[in-house]
Structure formats: structure tokens, C-alpha cells
Amino acid sequence: MKRNSFFFGCIVGLISPMSALLISSLFSIGIQPLSLYVIAALINLLFIRFFYRSMLEQSARGVILITFVASLLLIFTEKLSLA
Predict the structure, then answer these.
(1) Alpha-carbon distances of 32 from 10, 18, 28, 38, rounded to whole Å
(2) DSSP reduced 3-state for 47
């Protein structure tokens, strides 16, 4: 698998949200599940920065897509208020 591909970026982008989902569903730790998802989004932002600095633009675009989709899913499933 090429490192500079959209599919590779989507796979890498799924790692942190899936980890947050797994941690929040398996363990009842003292942190709120929402904060785990925010941390997952921040980790994805670090991946995006790394990919752009390494000239892997297609991979960065895949991570961006997964980050936005995960954020929208979180907003719709948790019924968060934007106001």
C-alpha cells in the first residue's frame, strides 16, 4: 500500500476515533466520552500536520475526511447543541 494514497489516509484517520470508541465503551474511566473524541480529533490533526510536512497530501486528505465525518457523526448521535 502506498503511503501517499487517500485510502491509506482514511485508514490512519480511523485509528484514533476507533480507539476512543473502544476505550469509552469498554472502560468506565473518570473522563467523559466526549473528551476522548476531542482528543482523538486532536491526534488526527497531528497526523494531518505530519502528512502535509512529509509531502503526503493525499494521505492528509483522507485523514481530514475521516475527522470531519467522525465529528459530524458525533454531533448527530449525541444531539449536541451548536448554540
Answers:
(1) 26, 16, 9, 10
(2) helix
